[in-house]
Amino acid sequence: MTEPNLIGGLIGGGLIGLASLLLLAVNGRIAGISGILSGLVTGGMPGDRLWRSAFLAGLVAGAGAYALVRGGLPLHFQAQGLWLILAGLLVGFGTRISSGCTSGHGVCGLARRSPRSLLATMTFIFVAVITVFLYRHVFR
User: Fold this and answer.
1) Which residues of the chain have pLDDT under 70?
2) What is each CA distance from 55 to 9, 27, 58, 65, in whole angstroms?
3) Strand, helix or coil at 84?
4) Which site in 1, 114, 133, 139 is 20 to 30 Å from 40, CA atoms measured?
């Protein structure tokens, strides 16, 4: 396991907070990535395509800028193939039944003191802890 990048985490977290604040202040929208992507795919409200596309392009561009500066992305996939597809489908299903994702509930919802977002974020963390335990101690 590698040492955590505390400075990178602080900078990244600050940029996520700033982007969320700006999207709310300028557009009156919550920066929930699953909702932004869903609205782009399904058409959403008329005139929403530009800001949704720009926001998602900014996520990809930010990762690209990081990769240029640091010489690559710190990605460590241990799962492959069907496991990654299954994981993606489960995340999509989870965001649909919880009406949001970790960015919408965990960043924006908690900042707005939403009880529903607190419950959703606690559920995300609880399921993540169980998943890691099962992966490391039961299925290995």
Assistant:
1) 1-3, 76-79
2) 20, 12, 5, 15
3) helix
4) 114
